[in-house]
Design a protein that fits this description.
The chain is 73% helix and 0% strand. It is mainly alpha-helical and 244 residues long. The protein has one domain. About 3% of the residues have low confidence.
Length: 244
């Protein structure tokens, strides 16, 4: 088996994961519309990162180290992501002459290039504080998280597949913990913009999803899930991520 998932896995419907995705999307949207009670809505992005780590680790654990499979995996995600992303960028560019001034149009074009290149997180790291309000007028700001996801898609499977090939299943788990530990350690020093936008400082969230996969508890699953939803919703309501 390669990194391409088993057909049964593709057909499996995970209501819990889809519910978390829905919560994450709703939270982020309402946060940007400054709806009362959603000051922590930006944490929806963090929820997505953890889900990505969980699903990616599951996929790798149910595969064999296979370079051809890795490239097939990357191709499948390019086919799934790039067309929709390109259409969104092109629509924004087409509408821009009617809605924004020429200076902003030039800026939007530049942001579109970074978005398609999956480097918009680097661009916005250098130019925008996500929480100061200016980002509300940047149409493609949300693509920063897609860039982080894509960088994760490329680097994480390679690290885990190499660790598994060299050290077996124990190597995979060790690598996930190592990624989490190094990423958390990096959080101690840099400015806020580094911590928010760049993959090395977000990798611990994705690794946390992998750790959750390795240590899934079958007993009391529904009770634990309900507790998790309460914590997630409580964070969205009460946590101000700008102060973290």
């Amino acid at each position: 088996m390669s990194l391409r998932s088993h057909p049964d896995q593709d057909r499996a419907f995970r209501a819990d994961i889809n519910l978390l995705r829905a919560l994450a999307v709703i939270a982020v949207v309402l946060f940007h519309f400054q709806v009362p009670g959603f000051k922590g809505g930006a944490l929806g992005v963090d929820i997505f990162f953890v889900i990505s780590g969980y699903l990616m680790t599951k996929l790798i654990e149910n595969s064999t180290p296979d370079l051809a499979g890795f490239f097939a995996f990357i191709k499948a995600r390019l086919v799934r992501i790039v067309p929709a992303l390109a259409v969104m960028v092109l629509v924004c560019l087409a509408l821009s002459p009617m809605l924004i001034d020429p200076l902003q149009q030039g800026m939007l074009f530049k942001e579109g290039v970074y978005a398609i290149s999956f480097l918009s997180n680097v661009y916005y790291w250098r130019t925008i504080n996500y929480f100061v309000g200016v980002g509300e007028t940047r149409w493609l700001l949300h693509t920063w998280s897609l860039a982080v996801e894509w960088q994760f898609y490329v680097g994480y499977p390679i690290a885990l597949l190499l660790a598994r090939r060299w050290f077996g299943n124990l190597g995979t788990k060790t690598m996930v913990y190592l990624i989490a530990g190094v990423s958390l350690a990096l959080l101690m020093a840099p400015p806020e913009s580094y911590r928010f936008y760049l993959l090395p400082f977000r990798a611990w969230e994705m690794a946390a999803g992998g750790i959750a996969y390795f240590h899934a508890i079958k007993s009391w699953r529904k009770t634990l899930a309900m507790g998790g939803y309460v914590l997630v919703i409580g964070s969205i309501i009460f946590v101000d991520p700008a102060n973290l």
